[in-house]
């Protein structure tokens, strides 16, 4: 309970200040626990308020989330519109857009994590349809820059501006889960590194047989496909139910539960997936889930461990053949893209939903560290052999690439990309710059 003095101080504080304080606490909890797992009571306790008092400022938890997202997008869109309007060389403007994004992530790290974790699930919901409009506007800004680069000859003519703009945005926004400006690179230096990576590419000229990006793509759409919610909210479930319907009826209950969980963790996130929903989609009684899987936390740990284990097995198999550095890195890219396509649960890692108090964190952390180390050693080997640019930062580079693949894996579903592996290899290895 509040002390009389604390209560008086809260009461006398200007309303705008109290609203901002509530939003700060709500945003921190959404980032740490996930929106779905955060309660109004927890927000009120964090803000040292009574739950009823909180409703004087916001009518619902959703209203708080709306304010977090709206403020964040207002900031980033204002910055990016100004960067594009200033003009300049396309590659310089691209660097400015990346710097804008990293500055906003640095200024509002909790809000950035919330945006990455919640936007994809909410963009079709009533009250949040405007998120799709922001996505389209941002993609158009980045696409304008890329198209101008193609027209002026600084970027390759076989680029597809819409797809490449989405790839770059997914790469930088996915960095919200780990990038902080207090580390090795401030936003300007980090933006320069990103430009080097995606424009120049990893491999030194003459070391990689470049493809034509246009041969990897079908007719790309101009926006990410979104399922709109009806009043009942059922429409957003259609994709998971359609995919679940393909599972043979004779499949045993445990396998059906694992498949259903994978689909729901991908679609609704871990916090937004209930045990009852898993049971309904799998077609089993909710009371039988504990017998088959234990707890939801145990199931998530098992599925994530399987995903990381499959990656490690594929990496080790390639390594046994002792490929040259370029082929080795191409293999790492390919296996990572394919693993994300096969394991819907991998999106839980992408949006930073793994909590130390929910999972066998030490085991998963060790597996993730091994995956990261495999990438880093491959990059170091390529630098030493002279196949890769000597000024690459192996640790930063592998984190950016893995982030881009994990957060971007959903983008290409339904967008006509015939060869997502080839697209990632081409952009990362050869880069976007005109030769």
From TrEMBL:
Residues 16-76, 251-311 form the HTH tetR-type domain. Keywords: DNA-binding, Repressor, Transcription, Transcription regulation. GO terms for molecular function: DNA-binding transcription factor activity; transcription cis-regulatory region binding. InterPro entries: Homeodomain-like_sf, HTH-type_TetR-like_transc_reg, HTH_TetR, KstR2_TetR_C, Tet_transcr_reg_TetR-rel_C_sf. It holds the Pfam family TetR_N. Residues 39-58, 274-293 bind DNA. This is HTH tetR-type domain-containing protein.
């Amino acid at each position: 309970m509040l002390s009389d003095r604390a209560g008086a101080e809260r009461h006398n504080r200007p309303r705008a200040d109290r609203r901002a304080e509530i939003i700060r606490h709500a945003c921190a909890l959404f980032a740490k626990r996930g929106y779905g797992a955060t309660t109004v009571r927890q927000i009120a306790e964090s803000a040292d308020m009574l739950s009823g008092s909180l409703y004087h400022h916001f009518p619902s938890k959703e209203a708080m989330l709306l304010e977090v997202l709206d403020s964040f997008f207002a900031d980033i869109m204002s910055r990016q519109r100004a960067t594009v309007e200033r003009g300049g060389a396309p590659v310089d403007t691209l660097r400015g857009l990346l710097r804008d994004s990293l500055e906003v992530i640095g200024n509002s790290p909790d809000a950035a994590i919330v945006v990455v974790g919640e936007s994809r699930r909410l963009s079709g919901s009533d009250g949040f349809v405007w998120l799709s409009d922001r996505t389209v506007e941002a993609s158009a800004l980045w696409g304008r820059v890329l198209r101008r680069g193609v027209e002026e000859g600084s970027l390759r003519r076989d680029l597809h501006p819409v797809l490449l703009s989405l790839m770059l945005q997914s790469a930088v926004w996915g960095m919200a889960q780990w990038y902080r400006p207090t580390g090795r690179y401030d936003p300007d230096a980090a933006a320069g590194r990103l430009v080097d990576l995606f424009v120049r590419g990893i491999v030194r000229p003459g070391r990689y047989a470049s493809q034509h990006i246009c041969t990897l793509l079908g007719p790309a759409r101009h926006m990410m496909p979104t399922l709109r919610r009806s009043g009942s909210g059922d429409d957003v479930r259609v994709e998971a139910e359609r995919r679940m319907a393909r599972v043979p009826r004779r499949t045993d209950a445990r396998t059906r539960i694992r498949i259903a969980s994978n689909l729901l963790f991908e679609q609704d996130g871990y916090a937004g997936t209930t045990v009852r929903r898993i049971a309904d989609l799998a077609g089993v009684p909710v009371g039988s889930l504990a017998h088959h899987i234990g707890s939801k936390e145990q199931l998530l740990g098992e599925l994530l461990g399987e995903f990381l284990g499959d990656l490690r097995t594929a990496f080790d198999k390639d390594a046994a053949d002792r490929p040259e550095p370029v082929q080795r890195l191409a293999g790492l890219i390919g296996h990572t893209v394919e693993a994300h396509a096969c394991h819907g649960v991998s999106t839980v890692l992408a949006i930073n939903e793994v909590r130390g108090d929910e999972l066998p964190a030490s085991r998963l952390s060790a597996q993730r560290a091994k995956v990261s180390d495999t990438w880093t050693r491959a990059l170091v080997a390529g630098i030493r052999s002279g196949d890769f640019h000597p000024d690459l930062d192996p640790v930063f580079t592998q984190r950016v690439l893995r982030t881009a693949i994990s957060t971007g894996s959903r983008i290409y579903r339904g967008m006509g990309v015939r060869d997502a592996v080839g697209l990632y290899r081409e952009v990362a290895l050869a880069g976007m710059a005109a030769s």
